[in-house]
């Protein structure tokens, strides 16, 4: 699945010059820098989103592990009290 996403970025970057040509045809201005900047921004945004998602998943995993150990210690305490 990740390979398809990477392939999409390759297609977008390879089509960017076609987009520059189309924009120049419509507006009589060549805006390569603007389109290149937007492309780079999208790459950075997706990369940051992946890091954020990973951080969120690790935080949830840590929370679950902490809850497990607290419940385990409560169970042991109750067993010692009852026995």
Describe the protein in words:
The chain is mainly α and 83 residues long. It has one domain (2-82). Helices cover 93% and strands 0% of the residues. The protein contains two helices and no strands. α1 (2-27) packs antiparallel against α2.
Keywords, separated by commas or semicolons:
single chain; about 80 residues; mainly alpha
Helical region count? 2
Characterize the main sheet: none
Structural class: mainly alpha
User: Got a strand count?
Assistant: 0
Cα-atom radius of gyration? 26 Å
* Proportion in β-strands: under 5%
Number of domains: 1
State the order of secondary-structure elements, H for helix, E for strand: HH
General form: rod-shaped
Bin the helical content.
Answer: over 70%
User: N- to C-terminal separation?
Assistant: 54 Å
- Average the pLDDT over all residues and give the rounded result: 84
Low-confidence runs = none
